[in-house]
Design a protein that fits this description.
Length: 207
């Protein structure tokens, strides 16, 4: 059984999707052992507590830069014996010392179809705002491995979502979550825990 550590910064609906999937028995060979929040009072921590999952707050604003934050976060991940790490609405870019310590063991959910609408500055509602401004007709979500390139790691799963004429950033965010993020994130985490993802020539394949 692998120890899954979930990193959060906010509401934690993706964490909830993982917890629900775990309780339905859909996360094979892994269990969520700890949730770490970069923000104090994040609702995600309450979701964890309600399900008896340990919560830790490591505030990003207590640190001068990403490097210093990452050094302390790495210590916690090691102390918690992390096998698999999930960025679930985690809004802090980490230093490469973390990526190097957990190669192909860390995944992120991004609310768009990478390589569109991703990279530095594209997070949360801002992504959906840019999608609507550009007038694309299809968006979606991506689960990918975290590497030292922001949103640039091998793609594990993607799911498309259609855009409606009257969508606002808020309605689109909700639909992308419901139809895509909350489905593909638990699936990808289970595949990773089951050692069913192979990397070949910089690309991820499920087996
Ligand atoms: C989600 O839509 C997630 O994909 C996005 O933030 C939201 C967090 O919601 N993450 C990013 O934009 C990271 N680049 P949640 O806290 O309810 O899971």
């Amino acid at each position: 059984m692998k120890n899954i550590i979930v990193l959060v910064s906010g509401g934690g609906t993706n964490l909830q999707a993982l917890i629900d999937a775990q309780e339905r028995g859909e996360i094979k060979n892994g269990r969520i052992t700890c949730v770490i929040s970069s923000k104090e009072g994040a609702y995600a921590l309450e979701r964890a507590a309600k399900h008896g999952i340990k919560g830790i707050t490591l505030k990003r604003k207590d640190y001068p830069d990403n490097k210093a934050y990452s050094v302390d976060l790495l210590k916690i991940l090691q102390a918690e014996k992390a096998d698999v790490i999930v960025y679930a609405g985690f809004m802090t870019i980490l230093d490469e010392c973390i990526c190097n310590a957990y190669p192909y063991k860390m995944v992120n959910v991004h609310p768009a179809l990478i390589p569109s609408f991703c990279g530095k500055g594209f997070y949360g509602l801002r992504v959906h705002d840019e999608v609507l401004k550009r007038g694309v007709k299809v968006t979606g979500a991506t689960v990918h491995f975290v590497t030292d390139e922001c949103d640039g790691g091998p793609i594990i799963l993607q799911k498309a979502v259609e855009i409606k004429n009257d969508d606002t950033p808020e309605t689109l965010q909700r639909r992308v979550m419901e139809e895509a993020e909350w489905k593909i994130l638990p699936q990808a985490v289970s595949l990773l825990c089951e050692d069913r993802i192979q990397i070949k020539d910089g690309r991820a394949y499920t087996i």
